[in-house]
Amino acid sequence: MQYRRLGKSGLKVSVLGLGTNAFGKRADKQASTRIIHQALDYGINFIDTANIYAGTESERIIGEALSGVRHNIVLTTKAGLIRGEGPNERGSSRFHLQQELDSSLKRLNTDYIDLYQIHTFDPHTPLEETLRTLDDMVRSGKVRYIGASNYAAWELMKAIGISERLGLNRYVSMQTCYSLADRTPEQEMVPLCKDQGIGIIPYYPLAGGILTGKYRIEEQRPIGSRADTDPNFHRFFNKERFALSEQVNELAAGAGCTPSALSLAWLMHQPCVSTVIVGATKVEQLHDNINSVDVELKMEQLDRLDQISRPFRFGEPFAAYRLPE
Question: Which SUPFAM superfamilies match (predicted)?
Answer without folding.
Answer: NAD(P)-linked oxidoreductase
